[in-house]
Amino acid sequence: MRRGFLLVVSGPSGVGKNRLISELRKRMPDILYSVSATTRQPRPGEVHGVDYYFMSDEEFTRWVEEDRFLEWAEYCGRRYGTPLLFIEEALAQGHTVALDVETQGAVRIRQRVPEAVLVFVMPPSLAELRHRLERRGTEADEAILKRLQSAAEELEKVKDYDYVVLNDSLEAAVGALAAIVQAERLRVHRSDYSDLLASIHAEAERLKPCPGRINSD
Fold it and tell me: Of 152, 105, 129, 145, which Cα lies nearest the Cα of 10?
């Protein structure tokens, strides 16, 4: 059985991480998505348990104390976390699990799961990132400015990742992400060829001439 792995998609707020994962899963439906928990309020159209697990500060704190997060971090005054149980079960079953986390969370995941695959999603520019945040229409100018200031710092962390994907063209970015998954699935240490090797060795043994056999030719 192929061993499962974590595909950690990270980058500044507004860069399009969630959209990329959604489009990737349309191309590769066997990829599972880990729904994060957050203490922020739902945006219009967001559904509890689908987009995020929306928690109160008290519930989130309880989960932290019970060590029920793979990682958690505070970002722009709100906390975000990755539920641990789902991750453990999915990886044990050999699944590829994609998750969308902030850069703080990605660093903590790497510390706890060294074999996780970290992908940094890069915006074409801060001006374009501002445009995407404003287009959401869910935050005031002050909040957007705070996210842009955080983005400038987050961009410096790209060197800590395994891959970088430029999200300028959605189609190209999703294609790059799919190529990363395909390449990572072919890594030798994630595959179990023991059954195939045993079959090949058995076949090779059958091809060996039997001792004492007389060649009639």
Answer: 105
